[in-house]
Recover the amino acids of this structure.
């Protein structure tokens, strides 16, 4: 089912990227009739234990001053959102690790969508450090919208084109339903893509002649093509069943995350919608996932849909 209307939780840190996320959240809330909540998390404040040096009068004064500064920043973000045409149903100040507190508050509010900005770190720095947006997208129990600007530096969420990426999984079906609802509410053209991976020229472990390799490769490619087309057709059927229509279905060959990002840029889409397979922590840490990579490298906002548990 479509998650909208719902409670939308917008996480802010008052950065430029958070400003782009705020614009997207306002557009979504107003377009879908959803309730907008705002959270600011500060990790600089730590409660002092009684009797310790940190519990001194000086520290308490510094603590209260820092807390007031954080509240002032949150109030300023509320004012900016309201001036931009949004309505904040609740503003929340939390203390702790940003990713953990955003996820925890989302669960407490039973938010149907969490919206976060992305700082757009370089691939090496992101691989070493990760980011709050990466962590929220990986670990939140429900859908997450990660927002970054296009080449113009502006969020282009309400574009005339949306791209739905499918792999035939259960989460991809949920993504299709939500993409359909958004396309209808936003008046956008919906495109779908399935990426067929390349096949190896031979199977390891034994030698075969080049003509056998070619014949086996042709048969395998044909089987993969049929399966890929079947999945695309099923996705289009899912969209039609939800009352929408796929303007064009794209079958690509290559590495899924790379092809999805590339096609999104070619089409000039304003939003990529895709499912998350919800892999376990160890497997995700070792292998990553297509959705993780698309979130990191897409030029536009990415909505990662998973079933809320």
């Amino acid at each position: 089912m479509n998650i909208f209307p719902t409670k939308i939780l917008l996480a802010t840190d008052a950065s430029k990227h958070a400003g782009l996320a705020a614009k997207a959240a306002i557009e979504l809330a107003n377009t879908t009739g959803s309730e907008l909540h705002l959270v600011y998390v500060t990790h600089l404040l730590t409660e002092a234990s009684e009797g310790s040096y940190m519990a001194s009068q000086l520290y308490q004064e510094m603590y209260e001053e820092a807390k007031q500064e954080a509240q002032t920043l949150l109030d300023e973000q509320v004012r900016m959102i309201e001036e931009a045409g949004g309505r904040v149903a609740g503003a929340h100040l939390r203390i702790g690790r940003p990713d953990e507190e955003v996820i925890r508050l989302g669960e407490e509010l039973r938010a149907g969508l969490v919206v976060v900005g992305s700082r757009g770190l370089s691939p090496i720095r992101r691989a070493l450090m990760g980011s709050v947006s990466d962590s929220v997208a990986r670990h939140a129990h429900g859908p997450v919208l990660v927002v970054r600007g296009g080449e113009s530096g502006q969020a282009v969420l309400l574009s005339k084109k949306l791209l739905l990426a499918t792999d035939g999984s259960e989460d991809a079906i949920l993504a299709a339903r939500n993409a359909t609802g958004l396309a209808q509410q936003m008046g956008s053209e919906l495109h779908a893509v399935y990426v067929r991976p390349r096949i190896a020229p031979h199977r390891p472990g034994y030698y075969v002649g080049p003509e056998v390799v070619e014949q086996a490769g042709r048969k395998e490619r044909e089987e993969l093509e049929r399966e890929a087309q079947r999945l695309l057709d099923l996705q289009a059927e899912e969209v039609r069943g939800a009352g929408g229509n796929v303007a064009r279905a794209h079958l690509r060959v290559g590495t899924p995350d790379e092809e999805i990002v590339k096609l999104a840029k070619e089409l000039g889409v304003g939003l990529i919608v895709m499912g998350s397979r919800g892999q376990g922590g160890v497997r995700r840490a070792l292998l990553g996932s297509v959705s993780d990579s698309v979130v990191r490298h897409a030029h536009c906002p990415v909505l990662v849909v998973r079933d809320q548990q």
